[in-house]
Write a structure and sequence with these properties.
11 strands, 24% helix, 280 residues
């Protein structure tokens, strides 16, 4: 089945639109981004899925992203030592800590996709073990068109007190739902989400999809967002999500044996990416 979707644009004309995967980008996790892009390309063959990184510096240049950290915040931590005397980044609106450059920029995806077609947002600390083509074919079904987004509706509230670089772990309703979002960008309810909302609303408002009605949030199987140290080890993941850190962080160790298996799988993928880059 072709991934191309025919949509009616805002002028009432028909257009063909291909899906795009937007990856949250943080320079401290560059290796993770490269591995994720590699798995998207390899797993999608022969289909071609376009990928874009949400580069915060460029989003600021366009004027789409204007959100600033709290005045008491300093620069990003550069150590995983949670005992280090570091004032972690806090949001200027709700004062709560956030840990990556893409904590809020993910909610610009419908605008970046011109409110047309389908798009997937992913945290960069993931990798595919199966084709994302399957995912886009699922959401294109007529029975799914009532939904504005599709997510894995985790009940997870992490027990860990800190996460990457010792940043405080925060809890909120719908935790981890927004780490993997399939967007029905043309759904009319996304007109209730503006660029100003992304730049001024609290993190909890955005990550709880507060511009949508509950019945507009579709469900994905947990295999699409398998959380290390949480998801049932009997699940065969289609996409692995390293929520406790990741094998690209110095000193990180997995909590469970099944997570160790997937971290070794990631390392092999990383080695392949490095070898491809260094080949003449």
């Amino acid at each position: 089945m072709s991934l191309t979707t025919t949509v009616t644009n805002s002028y009432g004309h028909l257009l063909s639109v291909d899906p795009t995967i937007y990856i949250g980008y943080d320079s401290r996790e560059h290796d993770a981004v490269r591995v994720l892009q590699h798995t998207i390309k390899n797993q999608s063959h022969p289909e071609s899925i376009h990928t874009k990184t949400l580069n915060l510096q460029n989003l600021r240049r366009t004027g789409l992203y204007r959100r600033a950290p709290h005045i008491d915040s300093t620069c990003w931590a550069e150590t995983t030592d949670s005992s280090a005397n570091t004032q972690h980044m806090k949001d200027c609106f709700d004062g709560r800590p956030f840990s990556t450059d893409f904590s809020f920029s993910r909610f610009l995806v419908p605008m970046l996709n011109n409110y047309e077609g389908y798009a997937l947002f992913m945290d960069c600390d993931m990798y595919f073990r199966t084709t994302p083509v399957e995912l886009f074919n699922f959401v294109k079904q007529p029975s799914q068109q009532k939904y504005a987004v599709w997510v894995v509706k985790h009940l997870d509230q992490p027990s860990e007190k800190t996460k990457m670089y010792g940043c405080p772990q925060t809890t909120y309703k719908k935790k981890n739902w927004s780490s993997f979002i399939v967007w029905n960008c043309g759904h009319p309810s996304h007109h209730n989400l503006t660029v100003d909302d992304v730049n001024t609303k609290s993190g909890s408002w955005l990550h709880s999809f507060s511009w949508l009605q509950p019945e507009e949030i579709g469900s994905l199987d947990e295999s699409w967002n398998f959380l290390d140290n949480h998801s049932d080890p009997d699940i065969i993941p289609k996409n692995v999500h390293f929520t406790t850190g990741g094998p690209w962080f110095k000193g990180w160790t997995p909590y469970r044996e099944i997570d160790r298996t997937y971290s070794e799988e990631w390392r092999l993928l990383h080695k392949t990416v490095i070898n491809q880059t260094s080949s003449p």
